[in-house]
Amino acid sequence: MEPDVLDSVFTLAKGNFPNPSVLLQTCLPLPSPSKASVYIARAPLIGRGHRQLGLTRASVGSDSRRMKLFLGVLLCSLVLGVSSQGWLSFLKEAGQGTRDMMRAYSDMREANYKNSDKYFHARGNYDAARRGPGGAWAAKVISDARENSQRVTDLFKYGNSGHGVEDSKADQAANEWGRSGKDPNHFRPPGLPAKY
Which residues are CB-contacts of 143 (< 8 A; sequence separation ≥ 6)? Predict the structure, then answer.
């Protein structure tokens, strides 16, 4: 049960305001372990030099529900990806696939070669998918997260102008190409050093 102090409003004369940290420590209960709460003190001016102090409770319980939903979707995705094979081998493949994706990204940054990003997208997904269903699952999750985060970044930088949409679609096509087992050298630009 929430304390009555959260619903009440104190009217205090200017200069008679107690230390806010003492007020918050003495009036507020410890948050329950099932739901986190944040208490915000606000004091707008009212009338002739008087301040009205109200404590507003901003609940973050909905954030925990969103987190539970996210984890549930992630777990279901993982369960569906496992199919008939064992959990340990699936997780091992997913870890190896994640390393393959990281290696391809690292190589792309190191090479810094013009028009090579599609090749590295395809190669990372190809290497990860060859590990098995766990690697293919990891490659898809990482590729989708990468492209979605890029879209959000473009939205903040350029607004809703459509900047980067075509490039993102081309990257996703290269990702799918590699995951399907097709040769990533299809996207290899001429002159890219042989070590890649």
Answer: 101, 121, 124, 125, 171, 172, 175, 179
The pTM score is 0.57
Rounded to an integer, what distance in angstroms lies between the CA atom of residue 108 and that of residue 130?
A: 20
Question: Residue 52: is it exposed, middle or buried by C-beta count within 10 angstroms (0-12/13-18/19+)?
Answer: middle
Among 111, 135, 129, CA closest to 177? 129
Which range is least confidently modeled, 20-24, 44-48, 113-117? 20-24
Handedness of CA 105, 111, 117, 118 (dihedral sign): negative
Task: Determine the 3-state secondary structure of 39 from DSSP.
Answer: strand
| Burial of residue 119 (number of CB atoms within 10 Å: 0-12, 13-18, 19+) | buried
Q: What is the DSSP letter of 32?
A: P
Q: Which pLDDT score, from 0 to 100, does residue 161 have?
A: 73
Q: Does residue 109 have a pLDDT over 70?
A: yes
